[in-house]
Amino acid sequence: MYAMRKELNQYRQAGAIAEITVADPHRLTQMLFEGALERIAVARGAIAQGNLALKAKKITQAMDIIGELRGSLNLAEGGELAANLDALYDYMQRRLLTGNARNDPQPLEEIAGLLREIKAGWDAIPEQMRRAS
Asked: Which of the 8 DSSP states describes residue 104?
């Protein structure tokens, strides 16, 4: 059973790496949102199961991904939208830290909702606008 799980994880990682090498910047950002949401979901499950080590690892990974999203903002040219996203990403990281410290799934649920909302807007960008940027 363990060997099959290990092989499946290796297959998934290889698929993700292959997708990253051909993905455009828009798709890479989508993948960051997906990765953060996946890690938050696993962390919520880990809290429910009392697996504190896994919870901490996945929350840290989610915070790192949000940090990448934040770092990709162009604050000089992005205007008010970039500034608002910067503040929101900062808030998300702080709330995840709170959820981690308190073993509380509520902040994780809140941040997952915010990420899904931003991702939905990102996903709705028309193809012609994606190519223009």
From this structure: -
